[in-house]
Amino acid sequence: MWFFENVYEKLTAKPWACAIDILLTALLIYGLIVFLKKNNAARLTFFILAVIALGIVLSSDALGLSVIGSVLRYGTVMAIVAVLLLFPQETRRGLLKLASPRETHEAYTTAYDVSDEQLHSAINDIVRAAQNMSKKNVGALIIISTQNMPEHIVDSGTKLDAVLSCALLESIFNTKAPLHDGAVVVRGNRIVAAGCFLPLSHSTTIDKELGTRHRAGIGVSENYNVLTIIVSEETGVISIAQGGELTRYFDSQMLTDKLEQTYGLQATPELNKRRKRKNG
Amino acid sequence: MENKNSERKQNKFAAALKAIFVHNIGWKLLSLAAAAAIWVLAAGLL
Q1: Do A266 and B28 touch (CB under 8 A)?
Q2: Which residues make up the CATH 3.40.1700.10 domain(s) of chain A?
Q3: A30–B28: do the CB atoms touch at under 8 Å?
Q4: pLDDT tens digits, one per residue of B5-46
Q5: Domain A104-279 is classified in which CATH homologous superfamily?
Q6: How far B17 CA sits from the closest chain A CA (Å)?
Q7: Continuous H helices in A100-251
Q8: ipTM of the complex model
Q9: I need a surface site. Which of A76, A90, A138, A218 has the fewest CB within 10 A?
């Protein structure tokens, strides 16, 4: 009975503080769930919540179990630190996001001095090149970079600063071209560099059948605010990596939509009509 | 141009509302329920 009396007393004393307390705790738990879900470890949430609940019960004055109560209370803090240590890449990415919270599409709307039409044209060229390379089973790795693309990645390749075109992209990834073995960095409607080396992802959840190109694509998207387009050399499948997550089997329409979304563009009705006419 | 900007703003607002009230709503409700349960336990016992 004293339990309910305590709850009632606290609820009536400061109802607003209680509501804020519950909401903030819910936010914390939701953040934990999202973090663990992204790393395929959502079940760990229930374990952590159970430990917290058990810690509260066992450390209550009514039971008088001071030692186990303290152990569980500090154990909760230890469990949170352990989770952060278990996923160092994700923790690093989270901290980087805190440092530069702007989303990719927002960066594009302000950072470039090019018209929407030029960006649409660049998108069409990227999509066409990806489709052509996919049909011919030519591997490709294209990074759509934002303002925080590190210089050392650009420096690891060959600087081009050329206007993007379908033919240029296909030429770069031609298996006999010296720059084909690396990534192309695209910014706005320009190819900044080609043949760039990227950090590989160390994630254990990546499908074993995917090669180094996919790992590099995922790795760079884990660490930096970029969108990566990957064309598989073996299967010709077009994939996209963003925020460390890989989505496979993109067709031309899906790729166009994704790029328009990334560039912060709205597809105009005229362009849609033109696209439909082209597709027949 | 102004129409385009206001349309973009509206879309962003709709996307934000969707992100809050539709996306992952099951997990959000579960978090709220878990937080409430933990709060009740803490308020009653500590």
Answers
A1: no
A2: 104-279
A3: yes
A4: 777 777 778 888 777 777 788 889 988 999 999 888 888 887
A5: DNA integrity scanning protein, DisA, N-terminal domain (3.40.1700.10)
A6: 17
A7: 104-111, 116-135, 151-155, 166-172, 212-223
A8: 0.79
A9: A76
